[in-house]
Amino acid sequence: MMTLSWLQIVLYIGILLLLVKPLGSYMARVYEGERTFLSPVVRPVERLIYRVAGLHADDEMDWKTYAIALLLFTLVGILSLYALLRLQSVLPANPQHLGPVNPALDFNTSISFNTNTNWQNYGGETTMSYLSQMIGLAVHNFLSAAAGMAVLVALIRGFVRHSAKTLGSFWVDLTRSILYILLPLSFVLALALVSQGVVQTLHSYKEVALLQPTGNVTQQVLALGPAASQVAIKMLGTNGGGFFNVNSAHPFENPTPFSNFLEMLAILLIPAALCYTFGKMVGDTRKGWAILAAMTIIFVAMLSVSVWAEQSGNPAIAKLGVDQTASSLQSGGNMEGKEVRFGIADSTLWATATTAASNGSVNSMHDSFTPLGGLVPMWLMQLGEVVYGGVGSGLYGMLAFVIVAVFVAGLMIGRTPEYLGKKIGAYQMKMASLMVLIPVALSLLGTAIAVALPAGRAAVFNPSAHGFSEVLYAFSSTSNNNGSAFAGIGSNNFYNIAEGIVMFVGRFWLAIPALAIAGSLVGEKKVPTSSGTLPTHTPLFIAWLIAVVIIVGALSFLPALSLGPIVEHLMLR
């Protein structure tokens, strides 16, 4: 059984890496304005959008204008989604006649879906109308993902261009991300998911007779809806969330092993391929492969820990005489909170992928993982969502770590730090430090405030170390715009408001420093490579980059983790 599990994991990583170069090369052509195989179909639509919006594709922005456009676009998105959810009871496509969304919950949800977080304090099938799911949530899945990709492209141009002032146009980068990348991939994936049984309908919920009636209960209501189209973009855009309350554990959202594989592959596909896009656009693909290698090594190491922890089983369950040994008839290990059809391998692989990326979807209950198994997805988020990370946001977060690594290495060997021919000075280091440390501060301060206030403690249903882990996980998830949850925490006004603020700050206090770095680099002249230049594509640099990421994560969160999953593991043993 374990051999088959590891073969599944190897197959997954192998196919992912095989797709990196073709997709990454295609995206580079899109952002450089070159012709692609989709251009005959998409280019007229792109031009029409510019004409209607009064835009010119050649009009470019400096970093401040780019940042203002990003902020205004997001604020309009938040306000429009808030209005839609408050008014859904009087709008069409609401066959269940669902009422307006609670104001505090609406505040949380509107920020969540506009920051690529998709944190959900609600059950989709009992809260959101079909119109809200389609026009509200699914549309913002496209827009928030494209916004993150646009910021990354602007940062790449900061490295590529020299003696310049502009970084491109936010509106052009946003439009191309949607039309050429997100929409075509989502269309193909949605069709594949429908073929596997993922529902896609506007019919109302359906009552069916139970095969085994219980007492007076003879009927069951089956929640339906246009799920496949939303599942496709929530995966590809590293949005997360779910059409249904139990997310990708729901048989209408993830019905077969093949749909499970496709959805897991979609989580990491674009973030991984963007590494090659980066290398292609900067003129040295070795740089992109080096960053991808660092991400993949961390991912495989953390996945191995999670598989081992969950396959080892739960000592508390073992004391009850439950057989947790893997065999030809069962996957063994800690199966609490996991779908039998997925088992340990696919559950831990999904949990690791969804938190290594900024995705947040789940096909198992992370709250039921063993303490060390649950520590893995929590710590992957706390590393800053840079192991693949969200579409765009993951790579510009990792590039902040690259700047830190280059700067520290330069100090150690007595050389002027530089990367891709651009000198890394105090300003770039300050901005990179903000990008690294702000999510840390948000996670820890949010957790501290929540456990200190009665309103925060009142919604925690589990006492002791596990309850603390749930709160720490929640703020680690929202501050890093992930969206997954341990659960075990009630949805009250305190958490709705606090998490909404954390999600907003966590998104834009990283994106704006990234644009500031781009703006500071784009005007610099390129420094010729010399014997003193630090190679940033070698195994030594890859190891150094991994060390920097791990050390920052360990120093930042080890005390908090010691109060949660680590002490819980010791108590359990």
Short description:
The chain has 573 residues and is mainly α.
Describe this structure in words.
The protein has helices spanning 2-31, 39-53, 63-86, 103-114, 124-127, 130-160, 170-196, 227-236, 257-282, 285-311, 315-318, 343-356, 371-382, 393-413, 426-452, 454-458, 464-479, 493-522, 539-563, 565-572, and strands spanning 206-214, 217-222, 418-419, 422-423. With 573 residues, it is mainly alpha-helical. The chain has one domain. The strands form two sheets. It has a two-stranded antiparallel sheet with strand order 1-2. A two-stranded antiparallel ribbon has the order 3-4. A hairpin with a 2-residue loop joins β3 and β4 (422-423). The protein is globular. The mean pLDDT is 92.
